[in-house]
Backbone:
C-alpha cells in the first residue's frame, strides 16, 4: 500500500511539473522529457478514479514488459544465451538420449506452474559434455523469464570464483542465490578434481535453503547422481529428491557431443 501511495504522489508531481509552464532563464520553455511510454510517463502505471470517485493506481500495459526486461537483466544470462531456445536446438540426427533430454526439458517447462511449489519441482540434465544440457536449460530459463518468473544463472566455476573474490558481499550474493524464484546451476562440479570446503559450504547453504522452502533449481553437470552423492551425500541426495521426476542422464560415446559429432 505504501508503494502504491508513493507512485501516486510521484505521478502527481510529474503531472504538476509538466503543466507548470516553467521556462529557462533565457525565456525559452524547458524541453519536455522523452518517455518510452507516454501513457504512464515510464511510471508503469497511472492515476485513475474508481466508480466512487477515489483515486486508484492502475498498472499500465508496459508494466509486464518492463518487469520481464528487469528479470532478464538480473538473471546474468548473457546476450548470446538469450538467443537460445527450443526452436534453435537441432534434434535431427541426434542420439536418443539427447532427444530424451529435449522432451524432459519441454515437459518441465509445460508443467512448471503446477509443480513449482511442490517437493519435486526441479530438473537435472546430467552426463556427457557437449550433449546440449546447457542449451536446453537456458531455453527453459528464457521461457520462464518471458513469463515473468525470476531466474538467476550461476555457472559453477565463474560463480564460485565471484563469491570468493569479495568476502565483504558474499552473504548478500548467496542470499540472492538462495531466494531467487528459480536458480540455474550450470556445469556443477566442473573444473578441479577436488571440490573445496568453501565450495561445498556455499553450495549446501543454497541447496538446503531451497530444498526446505520448495524453491526450484535447474542443474546441469557431467556428474551423475551417484557421483554427486559421492562428492557430498547431503547435497546430492537433496538434488536427487528435488529433481527425480525430471532427470535425464546422458550416457554414451562421442556421438552425444554435438561439437565433434560431425567429425566422427
Residues:
Amino acid at each position: 500500500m505504501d508503494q502504491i501511495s508513493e507512485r501516486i504522489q510521484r505521478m502527481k508531481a510529474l503531472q504538476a511539473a509538466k503543466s507548470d509552464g516553467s521556462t529557462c532563464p533565457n525565456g525559452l520553455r524547458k524541453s519536455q522529457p522523452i518517455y518510452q511510454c507516454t501513457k504512464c510517463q515510464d511510471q508503469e502505471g497511472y492515476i485513475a478514479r474508481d466508480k466512487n470517485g477515489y483515486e486508484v493506481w492502475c498498472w499500465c500495459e508496459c508494466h509486464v514488459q518492463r518487469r520481464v526486461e528487469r528479470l532478464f537483466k538480473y538473471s546474468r544470462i548473457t546476450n548470446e544465451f538469450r538467443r537460445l531456445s527450443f526452436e534453435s536446438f537441432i534434434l535431427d540426427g541426434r542420439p536418443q538420449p539427447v532427444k530424451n533430454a529435449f522432451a524432459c526439458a519441454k515437459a518441465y517447462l509445460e508443467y512448471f506452474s503446477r509443480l513449482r511449489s511442490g517437493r519435486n519441482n526441479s530438473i537435472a540434465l546430467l552426463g556427457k559434455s557437449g550433449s546440449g544440457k546447457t542449451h536446453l536449460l537456458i531455453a527453459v530459463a528464457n521461457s520462464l523469464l518471458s513469463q515473468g518468473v525470476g531466474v538467476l544463472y550461476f555457472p559453477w566455476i565463474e560463480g564460485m570464483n565471484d563469491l570468493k573474490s569479495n568476502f565483504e558481499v558474499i552473504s548478500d550474493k548467496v542470499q540472492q542465490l538462495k531466494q531467487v524464484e528459480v536458480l540455474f546451476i550450470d556445469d556443477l562440479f566442473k573444473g578441479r578434481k577436488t571440490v573445496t570446503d568453501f565450495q561445498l559450504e556455499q553450495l549446501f547453504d543454497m541447496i538446503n535453503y531451497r530444498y526446505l522452502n520448495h524453491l526450484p533449481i535447474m542443474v546441469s553437470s557431467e556428474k551423475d547422481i551417484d557421483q554427486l552423492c559421492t562428492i557430498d551425500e547431503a547435497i546430492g541426495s537433496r538434488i536427487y529428491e528435488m529433481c527425480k521426476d525430471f532427470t535425464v542422464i546422458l550416457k554414451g560415446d562421442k556421438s552425444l557431443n554435438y561439437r565433434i559429432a560431425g567429425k566422427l
About this structure: DSSP finds ten helices and seven strands in the chain. Strands lie at 45-49, 55-59, 123-127, 151-155, 182-186, 217-221, 247-250.
